[in-house]
Amino acid sequence: MKRVFAILLAIIFLCLASCACHMEKNITVIVREESSGTREAFDKVISKNGISLKGNITKDAIIHNKTGLVLSSVASDENAIGYVSIGSLNDSVKAVEINGIMPSNETVLNGSYKIQRPFVIMSSKKVPLTLRTEDFLKYLKSDLAKTHTEASGTIFIEDAQKRANEGSEPIEILTYEKQNSLPNGGKIVIRGSTSMEKFINSAIKGYAELYDVDANDIFDIELQGSSIGKATVENDMTGNVIGLSSASVNEKDIESFYVCLDAIAVIVNKNTQITNLTIEQLYDIFTGKIKGLSEIQ
Amino acid sequence: MVTKEKLGKALFVLGAIICIISAISIFVFLIIKSAPAFIKIGVLDLVFGDNWSPSVSDNYNNALKGSYGIFTMIIGTIVSTLGALTIGGVLGYFTSIFLVFYCPKKLKPIAIMIINLLAGIPSVVYGFFGISFLLPFLSKIAPNNGSGLLATSIILGIMILPTIISLSRVALESVPRQYYEGSVAIGANHTSTVFKIMVPSARGGILASLVLGTGRALGEAMAVVMVAGNFPTYPNGLFGSFRTLTANIVLEMGYAGEVQEGALIATGVILLMLVTTINIIFNKISIGTVKAIATTQNSNKIKTKTESILRKINFSKIGEIASKIAGITVAIILFMIVSFIFVKGLPTIINHPWFIFGKFQFGSEEITILPSLICTVLVAVISLIIATPIGIMTAIYLNEYAKKEGRLATIVRGAINILAGVPSIVYGLFGMITFVKIFGGTSSILSGALTISIILLPTIVRSTEESLKRVLDSLRQGSLALGAGKLRTILKVIIPSALPGILSAVILSIGRVVSESAPLLYTMGSVIKQIPSSVFDSGATLSVALYQLSGEGWYINEAYATAVVLIILVFALNLIAELTVKGLSKRLKGDTNEGKSKK
Amino acid sequence: MKENQKNDTIIAQSISVRDASLWYGDFQALKNISIEIPEKKITAFIGPSGCGKSTLLKCFNRMNDLVEGCKVTGNFLIGDIDIYGKVDVNELRKNVGMVFQKPNPFPMSVYDNIAYGPRTFGIHKRKELDIIVEKSLRQAAMWEELKDRLNKSALGLSGGQQQRLCIARALAVKPKILLMDEPTSALDPISTGKIEELCEELKESTTIVIVTHNMQQATRISDYTGFFLMGELLEYAETDEIFTSPKDEKTEKYITGRFG
I want to staple C47 with a disulfide (CB 3.0 to 4.6 A). Which of B47, B205, C150, C228 is the partner? Predict the structure, then answer.
């Protein structure tokens, strides 16, 4: 047994030594997990010669199922590249220009920043909604929600046509009329995309303050992903469920509207020189064709 | 009287039967739930396919758009477990030798307590340590950011250390002292006695510790997911993204499509089979080693020249040095983990008093863990209320009623062994497809507590049975000879004598509740929110909150602080357990030994 | 290991103890003992339990070193070498073999048990070991019994066989002195007889010191007998003399079975 151990130890040290020799660093490609809405949106946009990224991501990629893990991995690794929802961006990392354009409210709204996706609010078509849920939906569609959520970095859609699903009636931004007292109905159940957490939290806070109640008493919120949001709305029996999706929604039993747009920011370590990347370069990096940072500059 | 006796026995048998049902239903439910996926994807394509790219919109009625092969992950799991075994096995093996034969006497109890603490640290904390300390460190020699096989093996290796050290230590300590004396009396020195006589005599127990370590490494989920890289491909060298079976479940269960969910449960089934196979092989081996020790046959081997050369190297001497190095290494590792987390986390706790006692507010930057603390307490209380009576009843049945080789007892023991080996993430899957479904499809504290209570069962049954075994037969006979019934003997004489052991099992179970996260993620909820108003609310325990906080990116300091709270909590529980056992057994002995001490 | 630079080598076979005392912590187990043990004779130590006879025996190969808090004063000489002086303790134990009360064969084959000692001292050649094993087993009068079972586990032997194997194991390193700590107390009369016979043969070449509770055994095999009580050596003389005309009243009481 001792001899086996000795040999194994020797092998480990040899391996370590051999690894230390080729010091040339590869780019660390960091992506989200397969079923993430952020990844879906990113993969759809990043393409080259009509071939999208989906299914072609390099095998060296690191997969994280949390925005925070993507951020901290990029922050601690000079060779890393990843992407996060713009709402989650913080100063531990650096966002880069895509085709020369920085993600911002204007560039997203006018469509010049390509990597973007809608945030969708869903409710059931099958059951009548409670008064309270109905009222909260009205609030979400209103100008008040816009002002309340601006601080969270969301890009509110103002074009009534764009707020509706294709082929549906346009949805205008109306002025919210505060009721005399909080409308009746049980707790409003909110389920869905984790990317929308900041947006929905500030909306909830604003709504609760409006009626001077504790948000905890009228909301039950748990965000675990867009598909769970969809499923919960579909199974809604009491009319008090609101779903959040970070991808477009076409289910027939679901009433939906596009509340805001989200840019997906491509992030790199603060210490790198990279400031601008093209979609093609991104494709090559994420498929593993470009291996070193030097190939970009 | 007779009916009372019968009722008592029936109750104890009931406990045993619940254990059997639990073990069976885990297999049955997982297989039923994954069967459609196995059929739709094809057993061979699922198990031996090496392309995993699921499509959320896939369902059982339409043609598949994604592919669902998990072979890369099976290989990933096996290889990383082997890596963990190399690192943790070697280190643990030598550390246990160090502890038993080379550790200064005064240091030993402290060292043992610290190793128990190492066992109690939640896996999330290890993962967190991995991502914030180990990966940046490894990235200096790695072509990538450090994640991959080496990082996973190191973290898993550290995690299985306590299991290996504790069990090997017990095995080494139970080698008869006469062997030592016999060898020393011939003139062999300490070191060669240790390595030529003591260690070989304990190899059965050491092997057992390695197998248990393997089981833990196979089933570990939360730490692995943070350092493996997770790309569904074969492990390629020491560095390079790869995925394990457990990571697959943790990563994708959150928002899986219909077929995907089935395939993930199937992943759990495969994992369960791997672990069960290992356990069965181990049972075969352990019987084998006992025989092998009884009939050694290596003296007839023809000694080759290489062996005589090897003999010139003084392996005992190397072993001695290795043991000392291992002991110091383990101390350094533990010191690094704990101090790293404390240095990063303590300032937050000190500067932000609301962190522990604040009121939860939506959208507030002032994160508080008070609701998580309350959730943790709730889950601990409920799961213990369920698991403790069932566990104790089962143990009483096994020790007091069952015939040693009886059929029911064998089945119960088998069930307990199976339950003990099931990886926590598989428990999570089971809870998700049973309790969560029963309670209306949303995760709740009750579902989480029910899931955890099954996890606690084997520990409680085993420790209780151990303490029951230690109750002297003369006590039983004494009580029966006075005409007391069996039930009365059990309730009035046997259980009180076994109480310290039972209590310590219960306290250590609380530690388990505190540190588990994988089984709660999809049964109890993972969102940090307000204090729950009923057991049907969802909520996050401290460990789950740590996983959540470390993942969000905005609250990294709060994550460190949560880790600090967790470590302190686990440490306190360990301490309480130890003190309870010492205090109680002293009192029990003091009362019963009064007559003796007069002599 | 701390190897002393100039170790004294043990060549003599007689033991002389001068004014020796021993403490286990605060408890004094041996009180000012002086005794001369002649070479190539069998010396028996008798006395009630806890009288210190085993303790004294364990001083001769320094097994007491293993006991925590044990302190020894006085002189223990083998020939003219102080065994608590500049002596390598492992070398000492090689030369002063010991057989324990309970047979303690290692969990190895019969062959490996006996070869363990020689291997420890650097003999690895198969042929040499074969010779030593056979010789030791013949000395212990069990070669015929065991020659076909050399590769079987020693744990499968009977108690008497195990104890004789332990003697053979001790003999394999050619000790000059053999200490036996109640070697037959766990054995049946037939096995006991065999071991006593063995002792008679061994004293041709080896000094034997045996601790025993069995008066008959002492009279049967020993040349000298020492009677111990409460950590003191009350009487020490030729065996015949002690058992026929004891000088001390307590000795007489003890050997006639009228003690305490």
Answer: C228
Report how far residue C59's alpha carbon sits from residue C77's, in angstroms, rounded to the nearest whole number: 11
Are A29 and A72 members of one domain? yes
More confident residue, B477 or B457: B457
Q: Tell me which chain A residue has its CA closest to the CA of residue B58.
A: A35
The class that CATH gives domain C18-255 is: alpha beta
Name the residue of chain A whose CA is nearest to B82's CA.
A8
Q: Is residue B26 part of a domain?
A: no
Confidence (pTM): 0.82
Q: How far is B202 from chain A (nearest CA, A)?
A: 12
In chain C, what residues touch B184 (CB-CB under 8 Å)? 63, 66, 93
Give how many domains chain A has, as a whole number: 2
Question: Domain for residue A16, yes or no?
Answer: no
> Which of C63, C111, C152 has the CB atom closest to B295's CB atom?
C152
Residue B296 has pLDDT above 50, yes or no: no
Average pLDDT over chain B reads 83
Q: Are residues A178 and A77 in the same domain?
A: no
Helix (H) or strand (E) holding B380: helix B370-396
Q: How far is CA C115 from the centre of its chain?
A: 20
Angstrom CA distances, B530 to A186, A203, B367, B375, B449, stand at: 17, 17, 11, 10, 18
> What single DSSP character describes residue B133?
I
Residue of C nearest to B202 (CA): C107
The range of the structural domain enclosing residue A145 comes to 118-262
> Are residues B235 and B87 part of one domain?
yes
Q: Are residues A156 and A111 in the same domain?
A: no
Question: Is residue B444 located within the same domain as residue B337?
Answer: no
Q: For chains A and B, what is the number of CB pairs under 8 angstroms? A: 178
Chains B and C lie in contact, requiring 3 or more CB pairs less than 8 Å apart: yes
Is A19 a member of any domain?
Answer: no
pLDDT at B454: 94
Same domain, B435 and B477: yes
Task: Please state the domain extents for chain C.
Answer: 18-255
- pLDDT tens track for C124-160: 888 999 999 999 998 888 888 888 888 888 888 888 8
What whole-number distance in Å separates Cα of residue B26 and Cα of residue A42? 38
Residue B19's alpha-carbon distances to B381, B431, B440, C107, in angstroms, are 20, 16, 25, 38
Q: Are the beta carbons of B129 and B341 closer than 8 angstroms?
A: yes
Residue A2 lies in a domain: no
B229 and B158 within one domain = yes
Buried b (16+ CB within 10 A) or exposed e, A27-51: bbbbbbbbbbbbbbbbbebbbbeee
Are B113 and B191 contained in the same domain? Answer: yes
DSSP state for residue C70 in the 8-state scheme = E
> Domain count of chain B?
2
Range name among A120-124, B129-133, B421-425, B459-463 with the lowest pLDDT average? B129-133
- Identify from C89, C134, C153 which residue to disrupt to test chain B contact, counting B C-beta atoms within 10 A and taking the largest count: C153
Asked whether residue A5 is assigned to any structural domain, the reply reads no
Question: Are the beta carbons of B186 and C93 closer than 8 angstroms?
Answer: yes
- My answer on whether B430 and B322 are in the same domain is no
Residues spanned by the domain of B454: 355-593
The C-alpha atoms of residue C162 and residue C191 are separated, in whole angstroms, by: 10
Query: What's the confidence (pLDDT) of residue B307?
Result: 53
Q: Is the ipTM of this complex over 0.90?
A: no
Q: Which of B250, B362, B375, B560 to mutate to test the interface with A (most CBs of A within 10 A)?
A: B362
Contact: chain A with chain C (3+ CB pairs below 8 Å): no
Whether C230 and C250 have beta carbons less than 8 Å apart is answered as no
> Is residue A256 located within the same domain as residue A268?
no
Q: Region of B253 please: left (phi>0), alpha (psi -120 to 50) or beta.
A: alpha
CB contacts, 8 Å: B183 with chain C: 106, 116, 120
What are the φ/ψ torsions at residue A221 (nearest 5 degrees)?
Answer: -120, 135
CATH number at residue B505: 1.10.3720.10
